[in-house]
């Protein structure tokens, strides 16, 4: 089980990589990302107004916030495949585009909701408390 932030505050972001795989650091978040993958993709396509029908997302870090459950904030690297199969994204720091997603999880009621998305983020952009609600 992962370390959780104090009530109300967003905890320090934790990396997700080969050294810190999500399956080991927070298997619940891994399950939630798999569950909401299609909704995240659909929301990204609607909000960014791109024609790409199959962007892929790679989680690179996450943070938690204790509320009446847990808010997960996840930074994900976007790969837009376009017609040629090449990455069409364009972020500021490393040339990649990132999104931030927010997922609410309440274990005792089994509540799971994809509750926010912010697009066109850079690798070093901090998480925000309020994100636009995916339509």
Automatic annotation (TrEMBL):
<dbReference type="InterPro" id="IPR000010">
    <property type="entry name" value="Cystatin_dom"/>
</dbReference>
<dbReference type="InterPro" id="IPR046350">
    <property type="entry name" value="Cystatin_sf"/>
</dbReference>
<dbReference type="GO" id="GO:0004869">
    <property type="term" value="F:cysteine-type endopeptidase inhibitor activity"/>
</dbReference>
<dbReference type="InterPro" id="IPR018073">
    <property type="entry name" value="Prot_inh_cystat_CS"/>
</dbReference>
<feature type="region of interest" description="Disordered">
    <location>
        <begin position="1"/>
        <end position="22"/>
    </location>
</feature>
<protein>
    <recommendedName>
        <fullName>Cystatin domain-containing protein</fullName>
    </recommendedName>
</protein>
